[in-house]
Amino acid sequence: MTSQSAAVKLRPAIRADAERIHVIERRLFGADAWSRSQVDHELDRLSLDRWYVVAEQREDVVGYCGIFLSPPDADVQTVAVDPGAQGAGLGGRLVDAAVQMAWRQDCTRIFLEVRADNAAALRLYQAAGFTKLGIRRNYYADGTDAVNMRLRRNEPAPLTEVAHAG
Ligand SMILES: CC(C)(COP(=O)(O)OP(=O)(O)OC[C@H]1O[C@@H](n2cnc3c(N)ncnc32)[C@H](O)[C@@H]1OP(=O)(O)O)[C@@H](O)C(=O)NCCC(=O)NCCS
């Protein structure tokens, strides 16, 4: 068995996850990564208006997703999977967990923005049922556009799932 095939569990984040989350942030986002104090700030707000889910494999954090909850709306803050664990459905599991938490907290709409050049994230969010609302030109500091997306509660499932449902 490869290291990737060990079971990955999802659990709510705790304050002690900050260092590991920050390591993944730096690995994935480089100069654009959240600073350690930004990660701390997010986790300090866990019982207020933030919920983070982490993916844990062999007691190591390998992914996370954060959502801002302000019923009736919610906003996906971030989703990230360590490079060695990508492509195995983990991003999808993390986003689904955040979506389910939003519905449990009486949110009815979830928004997010994603870089227009981030094919993996666009695909991930579309697979989770998000649809494109529009484009914000030059949204990011390097001039890249942002794609605004939204998921509504009880939105019809993506076409692929409808096809499977027969
Ligand atoms: C985006 C990210 C979280 C996806 O995580 P993952 O665990 O690899 O995603 P999954 O394995 O669950 O795949 C989800 C969907 O995205 C697709 N996908 C994954 N990587 C892809 C890639 N490089 N290019 C195109 N599509 C991709 C998968 O095929 C899947 O689609 P499907 O359900 O139609 O088959 C991961 O690539 C990542 O951490 N990227 C860097 C951080 C980032 O950009 N985060 C988003 C912005 S905040």
Structure description:
With 166 residues, this protein is an alpha+beta fold. It has one domain: Gcn5-related N-acetyltransferase (GNAT) (Aminopeptidase, 3-Layer(aba) Sandwich). 31% of the residues lie in helices and 32% in strands. The protein has a 7-stranded mixed beta sheet with strand order 1-2-3-4-5-7-6, with helices on both faces. α3 links the parallel β4 and β5. α1 crosses α2. The longest helix is centred in the middle third of the chain and has 15 residues. The termini are far apart. The mean pLDDT is 92. The protein binds coenzyme A. The site of coenzyme A has 20 residues, from β4, α3 and α4.
Shape: globular
User: Order of strands across the widest beta sheet?
Assistant: 1-2-3-4-5-7-6
The topology string of helices and strands comes to EHHEEEHEHEEH
Q: Which small-molecule ligands are present, each listed once?
A: coenzyme A
CATH superfamily: Gcn5-related N-acetyltransferase (GNAT)
Quick one: biggest sheet?
7 strands, mixed
Count the strands?
7
The assigned structural class equals: alpha+beta
Total helical elements: 5
Instruction: Give the integer mean of the pLDDT values.
Output: 92
Low-confidence stretches: none
CATH architecture: 3-Layer(aba) Sandwich
| Strand-residue proportion | 25-35%
Assigned CATH class? Alpha Beta
Look up the CATH topology: Aminopeptidase
